[in-house]
Amino acid sequence: MRRILTYGTYDLLHNGHIRLLKRAKARGDYLIVALSTDEFNKIKGKKSYYGYEKRKEMLEALRFVDLVIPENSWEQKVDDIKKYEVDEVVMGSDWKDSDKFEYLKEYCDVVYLDRTEGISTTKVKNDLSKKVMS
Ligand code: C2G
Prior knowledge:
Structural class: alpha/beta
Strand order of the largest sheet: 3-2-1-4-5
Helix content: 25-40%
Shape: globular
Number of helices: 5
Bound molecules: [cytidine-5'-phosphate] glycerylphosphoric acid ester
Distance between the termini: 39 Å
Largest sheet: 5 strands, parallel
Order of helices and strands: EHEHHEHEEH
């Protein structure tokens, strides 16, 4: 049972998120998503449209997501890896070589998957404010 862990805010769920999660799950048998809480989003400088509970509900509805846990801090990752016996942390390539993830290689595999071009939560928000359809 290969256990995969990924982190994110996952606001206004879009195909970039879905493709990341689907590819992450395909790398193992069990996918855990550590979902940024509203309080941690503040620390990240993000304000999500949907609150934590709604974002969690949407992720839990995805057939390739097995468990959603809260991401409360930058510092919890090693504890998460140990607690959930994680074999591999997967993130989108915007995190490649980040000091927020590279140190985890001491504890498990760390893999960066290509981001999906042309979509982001920020783009969705901007387009909606300008009444642009994608
Ligand atoms: N992503 C992607 N393609 C996009 C947009 C996002 O592959 N077009 C990926 C990101 O690389 C990330 C995941 O989808 O792996 C979630 O994206 P965000 O919700 O923006 O997550 P982020 O704010 O990067 O949170 O501790 C780490 C942070 O919590 C990561």
